[in-house]
Amino acid sequence: MADYSPAETGIMIDSVTTADRDDAIWIESDGDGFDVWVHIARVADHVTTGGRADTEAHRRVHTRYRPEHTRHMLPAPVVEAASLEPDRENDTFAVHLRLDTTGQVVSADFGPGRLTRSWIMSHGEAADAAANPDHPLHGTLALALRFAQTMLSARRNAGALAFYDLLSGFATNEEGQLVRLDSAERNSGYIIVQEFMIAANAQIAAWAVREDLPILFRNHRLAAVAGDPAELRDELDSIAAAGDGTAFEMLRTRMRMVARAATYGPTVHGHHGLQLPAYTHATSPIRRYPDLVTQRIILAAALGHPSPYPIEELTAVAEHVNERVDEERRAKAEYFKQKAHEQTARHAEAADFTALPYKQFSRVLQFAVERGETPAGLAEDTARRLDARELQLREFASVYLYGRGEFEPLRERMNRMLADEPQQAQSIVNVYLQDRLGGPVSNETNVLWTVEDAPGFEGPLFSAQVVIRYDGERVDSPKRLQRNKKEARNQAALALVAKLAGLPDLSADAAAMPRVEGPKKLLVDAAVNPAEAVQIYAARGMVKPLTWDFVVDGPSHERIFTCRAEGWMPSTGERVTAEGKGPTKQVAKTNAALELRVHIEVALALGETGRPPEA
User: Would the pTM of this model clear 0.90, i.e. be above it?
Assistant: First the structure.
């Protein structure tokens, strides 16, 4: 493309039905790095602060998209005037990022911009162009996809719960919930748009923090019992590799239960779902009021003017938006709850449960458990769905915790299943607490863990105990001993849920031998798992401190984990290191442990520790 300005060029990538286009992207390589532009519709020019359109937008908060109609936040003439159009010169709010070859942002500039050359593409068309060398925009979109994948990998390596599985149509949203993508979004074009917008919003927020400029930050925290986002993402990757749709749905339900809603505020509290220290919404000012407010503030700052929003007014806007969004969420939930209740009562009377789609079956099941009345055939159909691995976490937990009468044999089976898969027990604890609290669970007040080393035993052992508190009540689990902290927590949670459900406690402690002082065998038995063997050597003081570091590379469907293990042998001063790779963290760790174990045992066999080896 001859004779053009990259700073005024962009591609608008949206769904086929989009009418209000509020962003465009462009990227070019420049020797030792990249230049990225995100153009955002300059809506602030078309909506006077405090005017009729602004007042109505403040009241509506956002555009609502419904199957039958779209209820715009702004009046139609404003939407038409502010939307980006390819056949005209557009005034924009421009975000210009300069990146090095690794994807690190070197500099970021913001302010008034122009879009004079642009194209409209659907997500699918953008994906096709990125893959087709003959397309006129192939170079730009292929580079855009490379940028998006680089930014995605960086966030994943930082621990973000970032996941796209375009084959199954599942992806995580910014709040860490697993959502289904429309068929038109199941392509790399969707990923390009998401990652460009996240990058722009994150850099705007970071700039505002550096400038000590209050804007409407987007803050998010995970529930206390959500677990490590990286572990949740690993679980997602494993399920995606296996192609298990039922497991996807179960994990989707679990993640929905532990995810908290993000909120707006003039102060920064971080965004855990995206694993970013600061974040905002600024790329959709046509359809989201917080984006319009933030655009006004950033534009004023770029022009050297004071913020149009005193901190008290900005706080009031944030509170209003949060309240309105929460009201809509509750109203929507209540509406569907009432509709579901009426439909559920009809289905329960029909008693033909095998023919019910899962969503309707789950409502009937909850209805029956809450009432303590089990229609004929429901327990049998629940067992059938359990055997077919259709039963999801919410329904499993309801029957396990509260089912009575005809559900008793099934509850006993569930108890044995949990003993075989104790990692599910912590999720059951969360269901129980959410039922009691009627809302989010706090790690500070509701779930208290004690996990510590268990001295006095051969090999590394850890003790775990969990206590839950709610409404003045307190329930303690027994302490459980295991070879690693994660399994100790799983067994303690398993004991607790059995106690809550009034079922036999099938949790267990690891076999442990009391530590005997005196001459000790140096070499760990060859049959012991490599990672456990290395941990035993560390516990004996033969190598310390022992560290395990992980990095992950590759697309979401072909993740490669690299584990680097490192330690120091005190008696010789020798530093020992090893590296292992694999499709999961556990495989990578095992491979690294295999190599590290050889280093340690060779040193022991040669007597480098100053102690004679044992035959």
Answer: no
